[in-house]
Hints:
The complex is a heterodimer.
Chain A: H1 2-19, H2 25-32, H3 41-63, H4 82-98, H5 102-109, H6 114-132
Chain B: H1 3-26, H2 32-41, H3 48-64, H4 75-91, H5 96-105, H6 109-137
Helix pairs in contact in B: 2-3, 5-6
Amino acid sequence: MEFLTALVAGVLFGSGLLLSRMCDPQRVLGFLDVAGHWNPALAFTMGGAILVAAPAFLFVRKRHVTLLGKTAELPDWFKVNASLVAGSAVFGIGWGLSGICPGPALLLLAGGSVQSFVFVGGVVVGFLVLRAIPGLKRA
Amino acid sequence: MTVDLWKALLGGMLIGAGAAALLLLNGRIAGISGIFENTVTGAIGAQGWRLAFLIGLVLPAAILGLGPIVFAQGLPLLALSGLLVGFGTRLGGGCTSGHGVCGLANLSPRSLLATLTFMTVAVAVVFVVRHGAFFWNS
């Protein structure tokens, strides 16, 4: 059951990335390029996603339980540290250079392009580099 | 509103529905960088629902095709960008999905700070890459 519901959630999420065309790096870069031909699409996509997801978060925050009766806890709201900002800034550099964030990166693998495998390979190396640095605390 | 923006909005609502479903049914946050990291570098047995979610994520694109895709960089810069994305998202505890969609839907100040940070930095990087020459030469 846990696998089936996760699979369905993934299909919904992946369909949304595909329909909104956020899998296309140029669309993302078109939003980030505020000094060029600015494309507001990403704001509509993020806004729509937040609007639909918000009631679910409100429910779980109040009830601490899923619809299937499993205990569920949400992450700490106010835990802010240097890693949160530094990590987000590093992510912003990679995102701004490529126009690709993790969800779209995995979608791009479906196209079988060399570029998509090189990018996702880089992501995995990034995970491993982070793990290899001793004493680095995550956000 | 153009058809294109409607698709962007409806696509966003589907993304939100996916995040809501994973939270309401599995009690999990749809943060893709974390789910992917735990799937590829996590302990054996950590995959489970995560792998199922990732298979579902890629399935629509695998069946329907991606449509036109234009990469902005050559392979060396794509590899570097990927590295920065992998390192940064896990150091910062989330990406556009975990902080940007789920965190903001949860009204979390921590995720708002993370989202403002990666958005601002990405906008600055795109500005330098696309308009830097003009900026420096003028």
